[in-house]
Amino acid sequence: MKKRHLKTRLRLLKRAFRRFLSGKISRRLIFSYVGLGVLPIVVVSVFLISLTQTTVQTYIYQRNLETARRASNEIFLFIQSPLTILNTIAYTRDILEMEKFSQSRLINRIKEENSIFHKIFIVDDRGIVQVTTSFGEEQMDFSQEPFFQTAIQGKEFLSDVYFTPSRFPVLLIAEPLVRFDQVLGVLAAEIDLKNIWDLVDNITIGKTGNAFLLSNNGIVIAHKEKEKVLEKEDYSGFEFFRQLQQGLEGITHYTMDGETMIAAYAPIPKLGWGIVIQQSQQEAFTLAFQMQKRVIFFVVLTTVIAMILAYLAVQRLTSPLVELVRGVREYASGNLNHRIRLKRQDELAELAQEFNSMARSLQQNQKELQRMERLAALSRFASLVSHEIRNPLNSMNINMQILKKLINRADVPPDRKVKYLNVLSSEISRINDLVTNFLVIARPPELNLIRTDIHRVLEEVLLLQEARANAEGITIRRRYANSDITGMFDHNQLKQVFHNIVVNALEAMPNGGELTVRTEIIQRDKSSDQSQRYVRITFQDTGRGIPPEIIKEVFEFYYTTKKTGTGLGLAIAKQIIEGHQGFIYINSWPEKGTKVFIELPIDSQR
Asked: Taking the alpha carbons of 334, 336, 337, 338 in that order, is the dihedral positive or negative?
């Protein structure tokens, strides 16, 4: 089956190659020249790159592994020294026969002479501290501690690495104090591992190579980046840690934070720890990569030179065809001003003239079509303007005629005359709003961005519409996020957007219903490694919904399903939201309701 699949793929590749060569005469000629000149160089270059990579890889692996071995040996000797000192003291009978004062002087002298010890103390067979180098810890009870439970049974104890209150790493070791085969107490000490930190920090290879030390359970003990130690970063899931647990050393690759690393690892005898020397693969093989780049550059340069020579050789044969194809592509891309010019007197020149004639004809037809489209757009715009402005003008004319008859009549109360003036003022405002909306279409308004609380804007709109909602049997529910949500917004224009959406929702529920306004904080990806906090505002009504066939058109200018609508509200809202670098979209279900979603960028979390 696999053999059949391989034959099929080879047959398809061969067919595609033949199709590529048959596409153009110039391709076949250029490919022949390039193949003959470049193929031998490519074969030699591949062999040279392979040899270089193998040699450099072997050297890097051996160097890093040897560094890991030396570090392992130094750390073992470092830990072995205090173990030997404590072991020697523990098996010296004098320590048990001394008085407490003498014992205290002894352990204090040992601590002063060996800075590796953080503290030393002696515990009796009940677990009570008898003497210690740490003031204030006398008579402390360690009877339930693991080190005492282990050492009182006559066994040596080594703890995991832990940190003192001052954030220094220490290791607790304990030796039984034996006399006549009977354990009479425990000699314990905390070993300061700061020197191990310094040792590990000083191991560097290149710019990215460094070392880190792992405990017997895979937790970082020492690392150049101290936060990894303090956070107890866990490497137990890596394959090299499983090898360290078996006491093996070696070289492996692993990926950390998107970067491939080379890891040389070696176990530390007796402790069960492991030292890892890691280095970026990119840096480790820099020399090989540079060699590879140079060879590739040489091959590319040779290929380019061969292609130039081949091109110059075939240009005289194919230049008329190339010019003709280029001209046709210009026409296909919409550039009808282009003209094909061939300095020849043959059939190709006649064909070029025919193409030029066709382009001129298409140009004339295109101009006529554009003129007709402009006329149609102007007609639709004039129709809409005349329709929208005629009504308020008629109303103003009627009211002015009435006012003209009543203005000099003494029997007509002034408030009645004022009423007609108010109607005129209202209609003038209405015409002004229409003109303003049309200007918004042609030239979107500039945003006046100030730091604004989004909940405050919503509340201003909802409070204005709440009385109308209650009168029409509509319940407005608020489901706001618990925290304040602020961002750089244009308060007035967002208020206009929310007002249009709320009014649309109320008008969609003539028989009553429920409008829910919800806010929540979400994350939107800006790029591969960044994200931006947004507030998502959801307006959900239980109205009649929007038919699926028209939902994509609700944001278009002049599109409306209302008898008295202008088709500008949602279109202008979309302009304003996009001006805030935000998003607006709608989900709707006929006879079930509509959800309008608005997402706006907000302040970063502080």
From this structure: positive
Tell me the residue type at 475: T
pTM above 0.70, yes or no: no
Q: Using the CB atoms, write b or e for 134-163: b if 16+ within 10 Å.
A: eeeeeeeebeebebbbbbbeeeebbbebee
CA distance 164 to 159: 14
DSSP secondary structure letter of residue 167: S
Q: Residues 6 or more apart from 25 whose CB is under 8 A from it? A: 314, 317, 318, 321
The enclosing domain of 156 has a CATH number of 3.30.450.20
Whether residue 549 sits in one domain with residue 426 = no
Same domain, 472 and 574: yes
Cα gap 71→267, rounded to integer Å: 10
- pLDDT tens string 505-515: 998 898 899 99
Instruction: Give how many domains the chain has, as a whole number.
Output: 3
What gap in Å lies between CA 432 and CA 423, rounded to an integer?
14
- The rounded distance, in Å, linking the Cα atoms of 226 and 5 is 53
Residue by residue, DSSP assigns 177-199 as EEETTEEEEEEEEEEE-HHHHHH
* Phi, psi (rounded to 5 degrees) for 62: -65, -40
Spatial distance between the Cα atoms of 24 and 26, rounded to a whole number of angstroms: 5
Q: Name 200's Cβ contacts closer than 8 Å, sequence gap at least 6.
A: 71, 211, 212, 213, 222, 223, 224, 275
* Longest alpha-carbon distance in the chain: 133
Query: What is the residue range of 127's domain?
Result: 91-192
Taking the C-alpha atoms of residue 436 and residue 452, their distance in angstroms, rounded to an integer, is 25
- Helix, strand, coil percent content, the chain, rounded in steps of 5: 55, 20, 25
Distance CA 496, CA 502 (A): 10
Residues 594, 455, single domain; the answer is yes
Residue 502 lies in a domain: yes
Report which of 272, 90, 268, 99 is spatially closest to residue 189, judged by C-alpha positions.
90
Tokens of residue 363, six digits: 């140009």
Report the alpha-carbon distance of residue 308 to residue 439 in Å, rounded. Answer: 57
> Tens of pLDDT along 485-541?
999 999 988 998 999 899 989 988 988 999 999 999 998 765 444 567 899 999 999
